[in-house]
Amino acid sequence: MIGLSLSPGATRAALPVVTIVAAVVTGVLAGVELSLLVVAAGALAGVIALLWASVQALTGESPLTLDEALSLGAPSAEEEQKRAVLRALKDLEFERSVGKISEEDYTELSTRYREDAKRLIQLIDAGSEAERERAEKALSQRLAAAPAKAPAKPAEAAPKDTDTDEPEADAEPSSPAPATPSEREEEAS
Amino acid sequence: MWQSLPEFGTGVLYAILVTAAYTFAVGLAAGRGQPRLLRSARLGAYATAGLTLFAIALLAYAFLTHDFRIRYVARYSDRSMPKSYLFTALWGGQDGSLLWWLFLLSGYTTACVVWLRGRYRHLQPYVIATLMAIFAFFVVLMLFAANPFEATIAGARADGEGLNPLLQNYWMIIHPPSLYTGFVGCSVPFAFCIAALATGRLDNEWIVAVRKWMLFAFLFLSIGNALGMAWAYEELGWGGYWAWDPVENAACLPWFSAAAYVHSTMIQERRNMLKGWNVFLICLTFFLTIFGTFLTRAGIISSVHAFAQSDIGKYFVGFMGLIVATSAGLVIWRLPLLRGKAQIESVASREAMFVVNNWALLGGASFILIATMFPKISELWDDKVTVGPPFFNRWMAPIGLVIFALMGLAPLFGWRKTSPEGLKKAFIFPVSAFVTMYVLHVAFGRGLGYPAFVERDVFYPGIVGLALQKVGSALPGITVALAAFNVAVVIQEFSRGIRARQRSAEKRKESESVLVALLRLVDKNRRRYGGYIVHLGVCAMFVGFTGGAWALDRETAMTPGQSYHLGRYELRYEGSRMCPGNPKCSPEEQADVSKRMIFADLTLLQAGKVVGHLSPAKFIYHRQPESPTTEVSMRRALSEDVYTVVGTVDPQTKRATFQFHLNTLVSWIWLGVMVLVSGTLVSLWPELSFREAGAWSYLRASAGVATSLMLTVWLCVLPTNAYAAPRPRATVTLSHATRPLPTGAFGATVAGLGLGALVALRRRRFR
Hints:
heterodimer, A: mainly alpha, 7 helices, flat, B: alpha+beta, 6-stranded antiparallel sheet, 4-stranded antiparallel sheet, 25 helices, 10 strands, globular
């Protein structure tokens, strides 16, 4: 017997795909009216499945996925402020490059922003110190408990950043790597 | 219940209400931080959206199968209607348009919940709960006041009443969905705003989250309003595109507040200021979308766009009260968190300019709102006072000029403060452009037929009237000069950015061509430079609006063979014909038995040469003979449109009465809208690199925007018949409005949509 296993993503995509394909085929063979009924039937089947899954999640019968667990972290107010300051620094660099701000004002504002950023980064680091220590402790305990099965695989070399054509106008002060999706989005923009 | 479609449909509406209420409750509970509850709420939101899809598919099925047991189907369709208009009828009436609204909201909800996966963990529960509350309102409205599945009391009829002929045209297929997409799109930013207030996370997090949602809503508000203008211009036949009708005004109000927000959000992002103001603008924008819907549907103000009078007004008033109470209550609760620590340090700063610009935009919106409501308000203490288009035109002109001037001024300033040297350097080129254009306009405008001064009548006695008259007279010259100023600002901003990139490249001992520097500049700063492109579009629109100052409006009666001079054109009346029946009618006209069409054929000449043929008409639909429709025929050009309307035709003598309009520069408005849409799309384009997103995710995101772009181009650039039936061949070659729909464009759009859908099916988190 051949076992067929589908990823959860494929399973979720199956119903909409089947419904769309069936609706198109029905539309071509039997007219738009019947294809609308196929769409309605597909929607109803999906609703039943979704509501069932929703009730299961509500009653705690289905486990939390890794994605959901990872998304529990959220940036603090200090992190938000840090991003605003970094963005302001980026704007300042741009405005200096296009000559909208005098050198004197630039120096004054840049110093102020950098001091703000430094203060906020220190605050964030201080706030996460306890969690970091706890995580390091848990990791060392786990490593100590685990038998040495195989030599550790060398870490995959990070792709070298060869994108050196960034102009001064795009200059962005160095900042810690974005941690959450929202942070990544902010950094991207 | 299960044997009857009306009852079954009503049952589905109840099911949507129950599911929305369940999701709302679970969403609120998830706000305490339990992940499994959040998961349950997310699934509940999908289920609610799925049920709405089910309901709209049922109603569409009822229309296509002519199920006249449903009152709404019987009232807005008949057996002779083609399938495209049967779909249009879904939103052609009050009840169905509410379900359509809910359907669009379900699309937004699904997209938002999918997008939220792994993002904004603390805001998510309240975003979902707020969206579900909006769902619940619209379902309650349908169940108790405007049920699209309500059964016909006397049983199924043999045939329906049919859709209003005015609504049976291309623009009405696309205008309401576009405008609704804009209106409903404002729900998502509002939901985030409420979530931010509820959680107290009022820093930049929610501002960043709603950025693109608001831009998307703004895009469709712009497209929807522009399509409404196009519909009024081509279908209503009164010669213009904007009549300051209450419903038109209500539709443009959220555009003003959304435009204000799009600018003020940048201040919070960069300076951590105006937190309360941004909350206010988002709540106001959402409120105005509901208010606009209320105006259209409650029947309190008469309008050509309004739905029939109904008693749904009280529900809307209740909902608006709930929005105000909830928003105000949360704002008061969170007032300490909304107070920004930073302040505007200098008047010569971009944030100061944005604040003034915000006030000007809201001032314009407030003026329109009060003037629109004034006839109703005046009934409270006096006889009804009518506020007509001349009043709006006189007052909105100076307000518009202030907004237009501020639009050009703001980019010249830097954030926080600008040095005097920097200001001098920034102003030289735009001010030179302003002065040069003004002098050239004054010197040569009259000779070219576009004078800088157009004498206006004194509208009011006294100093205010005199001031308005002076401003109105000088308006064409000032507006054109301000357009030159704005264009110069944009050119300067682009050129400065390009030079900065090139200098930076030189420092690295590399070279960057102008084109490469331009593309990289826009690529790295899409929001900023997309915004500048939007400004260019607004410039073109303002030039188009100014064209009204040089327009010619004439009325005349002619017998066959007579000619009439309109500006540099001559219109020769060839005679009238009634179709079907006349041998001169085209085969399509001969085959159309749904109406009688009376055409008045005109030949258009310029300097003695025939440049085209126009056939304005009156259509008399057999189902609604008491309301004949006016069918415009026009020749479009970038400089002016020759716009013709036939009033009456004597069947014996063939003598006809005409309205001729030479509408100057109107095409610039449509051109401006297209540029505005392009600029907004540049701002919306996903800012992800292959490295951070992965090729597939990038492709998926790009395909979504590309699909929107193709759809937008298709909607804006390639209009087809403005008539419910094909027009005579003679006219087809003439008017942009009567060009047949290119099947290639349609195919490209369908392919784009298909690509977007296929790619969207493959869901993968950005890593």
